[in-house]
Amino acid sequence: MTRIPKHLAVIMDGNGRWAQKRGMPRSVGHRAGVEALRDIVRLSDSLGVQYLTVYAFSTENWKRPRSEIGILMSLLKEYVIKELDELHANNVRIRVLGDMANIPEDVRAAYVIACEKTKDNKGLVLNVALNYGSRAEITQAAKKIAQDVLQGSINYEDITEELFEQYLFTRDCPEPELLVRTSGEMRLSNFLLWQVAYSEIVVVKELWPDFNEKSLLEAIRIFQNRERRFGGIKKVEE
Ligand code: FPP
Questions:
Q1: Strand boundaries in 103-152, DSSP class E
Q2: Residue 61 designated active-site
Q3: Whose Cα sits closest to atom 15 in ligand 1?
Q4: Which domain, by its residues, includes 12?
Q5: Contact present, 52 and 10 (Cβ < 8 Å)
Q6: Model pTM above 0.85
Q7: Tens of pLDDT, residues 105-145
Q8: Any catalytic annotation for residue 13?
Q9: What is the domain-level CATH number for residue 18?
């Protein structure tokens, strides 16, 4: 309990395979994935994680069949509508990372309401990466900085890593100390490329719907046993 990551990021992978293994449609896996998410949000909050960022829908997920996109969108909406009261009561602040412009109106509205209602909460920050892609995030940051330089609100000499971070969706969030990916895939899949520069990455075999409290505690234990050097050398050698 002494070194709980302040910011935990999660790639919730494997819903489809979970369902297929059981001979069920992929939608059943996504629904089970929402249940797993619900538990992980509660546990993260009770462990004292301060920021939890979950990859809910990527800019690449639009390539999926239209019916699956529809299911994911309705689950995303259902989740935030059903959970809002409890999350708000628990002082959770909901934020969306990603470009909301292309999200169906009803889903967008549900998240706008949730973000607005919880904006002053001081507990866990739940970042829902929705229509999120890291390359798009970095590109829009570069464009906005260029625009601000042209308009004279900043000088190009002012462009530092710290300033750049303020143009990312994760502005005001510390970098994730721990990134967990389920279902054994060793990829970042365009998730938080800037932000995970020094994060510890823990890949677990379990498919996302099977990821439970025990799995999260195990991932945190692995993290706690890692030595973080940030490009430096071990303290003892120093
Ligand atoms: C990956 O499984 C998961 C997703 C594409 C989305 C994650 C979504 C949820 C957990 C449900 C909705 C989210 C929220 C925030 C309510 P996959 O379909 O890529 O699985 P596969 O790799 O086995 O095909």
A1: 125-132
A2: yes
A3: 56
A4: 7-224
A5: yes
A6: yes
A7: 999 999 999 999 999 999 999 999 999 999 999 999 999 99
A8: yes
A9: 3.40.1180.10
